[in-house]
Structures are given as structure tokens and as C-alpha cells.
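Q: My labmate handed me this sequence with no annotations at all. I'd like to see what the chain might look like in three dimensions before we decide whether it's worth expressing. Could you predict it?
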Amino acid sequence: MRPLLLAAWLLAAASQAAPVEHHLVDVGTIRPPLLEEIRYATRHNFTGESLYPFPQAYVHRDVAAALHAVQADLAKEGLGLKIYDGYRPLSVQQKMWDLIRDERYVSNPALNKGRHTRGTAVDVTLVDKMGNELAMPSPFDDFTEAAHRDSRTMTAVQRANMLRLQQAMSRHGFEPCPFEWWHYDFRGWKNYPVLDISFEALKKGERWTEPVQ
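A: Here is what I predict for the chain of 213 residues:
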């Protein structure tokens, strides 16, 4: 290989291997605080397995700022958010896909490497001042048509609550998923890098991680 070509190749390789700053933050830092029920840190989820080492949610800092605004709006109505999931390591996303293989409910890592993997997707619902969940079209993680936004089985109250959540989230840059009433993507999510940093590393405060190719 010619010296100039070799130098260019080495420079490109070094650039690809350079660590990236993930900009993930703990949801617990948001005020007013979100109620947290991190299902994938328990067996109470569609896999029947505990996929996270501890119950903690992380999101990209841009998403955290948007959630803060949503919380502030909802607080005026005596309501708030409960979060079920935020950032999800790519390795966990792959495990979920291997179990479901239905793109309506789980992103196929082979196509876009996921949405939760960027820290830009959240699974949320509405709660009242006492932390009680408002009635929604289906339980969380219900991978049936009952969870769809156009489901014909939901009651008028469930529809009203679903739309109330959707309006609050949409005002601050979140886009709803048609097949899961609880899932919201932050606008422009494709522009954020895919991550596979572990929860343990995040808890230790590590700010940098290896890029996902």
C-alpha cells in the first residue's frame, strides 16, 4: 500500500475507533420527578426475565430536557409521568428481537439498530398525584391490537387518557408509536448514535463508550 493511502487508512481506522460521549443522564435527575417502574429490571415483562441489573432509567440529555417540560405541564393538571423504560443497550435490544421478531412491537437491530438504543425512546404512562395510573387501552407490554392507538376495544375514558398523554408528549417533541400507546420517540431520533454501554458503566459515571458500527 502506498504511504499516503496507508496514512489515510490508519487515520480513518483511528477515527472509527474513537470513543464517543453518550450524553445519557439518569431520569431520576428530572424535576418534577417521574415515577419509575423499570419493568426490564424485573421479571414482570414480556420476556419473563430480568434484563437490566438494577431498576434505573437513562435517556439522552435532550430527551431529559423535553421530559422536564412535559412534567411541568402535567403538574399543572395534577398529573405526572410514570416511566417503564428509556435507554436500552443494543445487546438487550437484540435479545428482545430474537424473542418477538415483530417490528410493530420491537425494533429489528438489523435494520436500524433500535430506537431505545439511542436513549431517545421512552415508554411512559400517566399517573395522578397519588401515583395511580390512569386507565389506558391495555397494560404495558401488551403486544396485541388492544395496545394500538386505533384499537376498537378501548373505552371512551381510556381513549381520552391516551390522547391526553399524547398531546402532552407531542407538545415537547415526542412522536407516538401507532402500535404501542406507551411508546414515544424523540423527534430526530435517527440523528442520535446507537449505544451499547452497560448500566453498570453508566452508574459508575463513565461518560465515553465505544461506538457501535
